[in-house]
Amino acid sequence: MIASSSKATSIKQSESTPSNSADSERTKRGSGFSLTSHSDSKHGNEEDLAGCGSKGSAQLLAPSSSDTSSAEDSAARTDEGEHPSHASQTVERESAARSEVWSDREKHGSAIAEQLAGTRQGDRIWVEWEEGDPENPFNFSPTRKWLMTIFATFFTMEVAATAGAYVPGIPSMEASLRHDLHEVSLLGISVYAFGFGLPPLVLAPLSEVMGRNTIYLVSHALYTILFVGIGQARNIQTVIILRFLQGAFGSTGSTMVGGSIADLFSSSDRGAPMALFATAAIFGTGFGPFWAGFVEQYIADGWRWIQHIQAIYTGAFLIIFTVVLKETRGSVILARRASRLRKQTGDGRYMAKSELERASVVTLIKGSLTRPMIMLFTEPVVTAFSLWISLQWGMMYALLESIGLVSALHDYTPSQTGLVFLAICVAALIGNLLNPLSERAYARNYPKRGAEARLYAAMFAGLMFPAGCAIYAWTSYSDVSMAGPIIGIVVLMVAVYIVYLAAFSYLADSYGPYASSALAAQSFSRNMFGAAFPLFTTQMYKNLGYQWASMLAGLIGLVLGCAPFLLFRWGPQIRAKSRLSSELERLGLL
Predict the structure, then answer these.
(1) Model confidence over 202-250: pLDDT tens digits?
(2) Cβ(356)–Cβ(180) under 8 Å?
(3) What class, spelled out in words, does domain 359-590 have in CATH?
C-alpha cells in the first residue's frame, strides 16, 4: 500500500485504510504486505512495549517537515483555495510512478512487480505489514504459535533447572577438586544468578538489530558448550567463572521469552502463554535438583555427570530449536524483507521504518542500561514491586541450600533430598491451575479497576508467602515429619509463582510503552537478590536457628506483602504523582 505522510506527527496504523482516490493510492493485497512511499529525513525512536514493539500495531511516527503530502491532501487544499499547481505536480509524479511500475515488470518480472505495485512519491518506499500477511507473527496459526511458545519455554525450564542442578553435586565436586571451602563452592549458585542480571540489559537491544531468533540460537549454543567446560574443570576457579558465563548466556531463556510471547499473542490472548512461561521458570528450579540428587548418589564423580547430562539434553533441544523457532520480532522481519527487495530490484528506496527509526547499538545499550535503573529508584510502583518479588526470588534461591540443611535433620540421602525439591515443581503446577481464576477476576474487574485488577491474586499471595515461610520454619525439626516442611515449600512457592506473574502483567499495564524498562528493572533487582541470598543462607540458618531463619524471611515478606494492598487502594494516585506515568496517561498510551 502506498501513501504519503502528512507534515504533522501522526499515529500510523499498520493496517491502513485505502484512500478514496484510486489515483492517489493503490493497494496490492496479494503481496501480503504494503509499501508506503514517504519523503523523510528523520524519525523518532520507538520504545519496545514489553518486548512487543515489533508487532503490527499502531506506531508513533514523527516525519520531518520535508515529508511530501498525499495527492488527496493536495486536492483538499486546492479546494480550500490553495494554488492548483500543487495538485497538478502531484498528478505528474503519480504518472511517473506508474511508469516505474511498468519498468519494474520489464526489468524484474511480474512477481516482483506485483510486490512493488502502487503509487510512488519521494525518496522512501516503506515496507509495512498488510492485513493477513502470513509472515506477521500475529497471523501465525494457533498451532505454530503454541509450538514456538512451548519450545521457547523449554529454554526457560532448562536455565532454571541448571541453577539448582549444581547444588546436589557440590559434595562430589569438593572431593574431586580437593577443595574444602564450602562457601566458595556456593558461589557457583550466586554467580549463575548474577549472570542473569546485567547481560540481558545488553542483549535486549541487540535483538532489535539481530532479531530474537539469532540471539536465542547463539546464546543457547554457548550455554550448552559451557556444560562441557564445567564438567571437565580441574579447579574451583574454572567452575565459578564458567558458571557466571553460563548464567549470562542462559539469561535469554528467562528474559527474552516473554518478549517472544508478546510478539505472537495479542494482550487479550497472552494470559495462558505467560502462565506457561512462569510455570517453566518455577518448575525447572525444582526439577534440576530432583534428578541431580540421584546422579550424585549413584554415579561416581556425580557432579561431572550432572554437567554432561545437561550438555546432552540441551544439545538435543538446540537442534530442535533451529528447526522450530523462527524470527518473531516484526521490525526485524520487515527490515530483512526491505533488504531483500533492495537486492532484487536494485532500488535503494525500499526500507522498513525500523531501519531509520533505530538508534545506534551504542545508544540502544546506553538507554537499556540507564532507564531501568532510573525507574527502579524513582518510580514507586516499580520500586515496591521489585523489592517484593526480589525478596521472594531470594528465598527461592535460599531454598536450594536450606532444603539440604533441613533434609539432613532426617538423615536424607541425596536422592531423597532431590525428591523434596519436587515440592517446588508441584507448586508451579498448582500456580498454573490457579491462573485462570486470576484471569477471570482481571477480566471482570478491569473496566472499573484498570491495571489494579491484576492485583487480586497478588494480594492473596501477599498472605500466602509469610504463611508458607512460617510452616516451613516451625516444622523444621528432626522429630517432625518432613511432610511439614514440604507443605510449607509448596505454599510459599505458589505465592512466588503468583507474584512473579503479577509483576509482569501489572508493570506492563502500568507503564505501557515503557513496560520493557520497568520489567528489566524488576528482573535486575530480582536476580541480584537471587545471587546474594545463597552467600549467607547457611550462616543465617546456623546462627539464627532453622526456625527463625525461615521466619525472618516470612516476617519481611509480610511487610513487603502490603505492597499489592496499597497499590490496589492508591495505585492510580501514586501513578498520577509519577511524571512518567502521568505523561503516558496524558498521551493516551495507558
Answers:
(1) 877 777 778 889 999 999 999 999 999 999 999 999 999 999 999 999 9
(2) no
(3) mainly alpha
